[in-house]
Design brief:
The chain is of the alpha/beta class and 366 residues long. It has 11 helices and 10 strands. The chain folds into 3 domains: 73 residues, no CATH class; 61 residues, no CATH class; 175 residues, Rossmann fold, CATH 3.40.50. α4 packs across α6 and α8 packs parallel to α9.
Length: 366
């Protein structure tokens, strides 16, 4: 019975994943999805799925609605008057909890994203304890309850002392087993993501909402590929500064634009905190493509080529549509750095473009 329930549960999870995969492009654009994010779970509303439940009874046609009576006979003593019921079919909506790892796997499968091969720390290993075996002795805090219970139940049945009418299971010393660990050497593959965003006057709420959605999915995919992720946030107009995540997405826009200030700030953060030999470095810059001058755009390309691109797994530039921005910076990058393999550029004009942008960023598995 337990095995059957487990199989049914697995099948239900597969149905849920199939529904999410089918509507993935829609889920990628749902801002409320991010608001429901817990520590490890995300709640997703799924249409057209009924949650599995137990059905009680013995199928002998004696359940509710199967007693005495004739078709059309009124039920109870009421006069039958009341509000008219609706005539439209209901839409069954089930909120399911899915882990961020499962969500990232669905994203990778649907977008056909290759797994990332971490660089930098292939030869560096850390020692981690893994609970992978069982032993006869140990502290009570590590006692394996299910195995201990089964051993005690089997012993009591074999010795004839088990009473089904009073199913009390008493553990003896020989029944108890404990989880045991052994040290495991594991390659250490940490990564840092540096998000940079233009917060000048041309970047409004709609543009920052696009950035927020894309950053959520970037985070989800990279965290699935690395043991540890650190995120750093840089905002800029004509000057750049490092801020926390809340400020990054809610800082009011104002002023002009000097993109090189963000790249210099990013370079300083990496030099101070992240040795490229030990860290996998991902850089993402979001802007509407408006910059203060052609000379500053050339300075940006110089900083990227000489300082940031050589130490990064990937630099991704995402240009969001704005009615006020010139949109020229993406063309400068594509012209000046066309020979660079670890730079990827994409345009996001609406939420529907996020799906294709994520695929462009990670299609090569860097």
């Amino acid at each position: 019975m337990i095995l059957k329930i487990r199989k049914d549960h697995q099948r239900f999870r597969q149905i849920v994943k199939g529904k999410i995969r089918k509507d993935l492009r829609k889920f990628l654009t749902r801002g409320e999805l991010i608001g429901k994010e817990g520590k490890h779970l995300v709640s997703i509303p799924i249409h057209g799925i009924d949650i599995p439940h137990f059905r009680y009874g013995n199928n002998n046609d004696q359940g509710v609605g199967q007693g005495e009576g004739e078709p059309g006979q009124s039920v109870g003593d009421g006069d039958g008057q009341g509000g008219l019921g609706g005539t439209d079919p209901g839409r069954h909506i089930l909120e399911v909890d899915i882990t961020l790892d499962e969500l990232a796997d669905i994203l990778g499968e649907e977008l056909q994203l290759p797994r990332i091969e971490p660089k930098g720390k292939h030869s560096i290993t850390t020692i981690k304890d893994r609970y992978s075996s069982i032993r006869q002795t140990g502290p009570e805090s590590l006692r394996h309850f299910k195995r201990t219970f089964r051993r005690a139940l089997r012993r009591m049945i074999m010795t004839g002392v088990y009473d089904p009418d009073h199913p009390v299971i008493i553990f003896e010393r020989g029944d108890k087993v404990y989880r045991s660990w052994k040290p495991v050497k594991k390659p250490d593959s940490n990564a840092v993501i540096v998000y940079m965003m233009d917060v000048s006057g041309s970047m409004g709420y709609e543009q920052k909402e696009l950035v927020r959605l894309e950053a959520f999915w970037i985070d989800a995919w990279l965290r699935r590929n690395y043991d540890g992720i650190e995120s750093r946030y840089i905002v800029h107009d004509v000057h750049a500064q490092e801020v926390d995540r809340e400020t990054f997405f809610h800082l009011r826009e104002d002023g002009g634009t000097k993109i090189s200030s963000a790249f210099k700030c990013c370079r300083d953060v990496i030099e101070r905190h992240y040795n490229p030999l030990e860290w996998n470095i991902y850089l993402f810059h979001f802007s509407d493509g408006d910059n203060s001058s052609e000379s500053d755009s050339r300075e940006c390309c110089r900083i990227l080529r000489e300082h940031l691109l050589p130490i990064s797994n990937q630099f991704g530039y995402c240009q969001v549509a704005s009615a006020y921005g010139s949109g020229h910076f993406i063309n400068v990058l594509r012209e000046q750095l066309a020979d660079v393999e670890n730079m990827v550029t994409s345009r996001v004009n609406t939420k529907d473009d996020i799906y294709d942008s994520i695929k462009e960023f990670f299609a090569k598995g860097r």
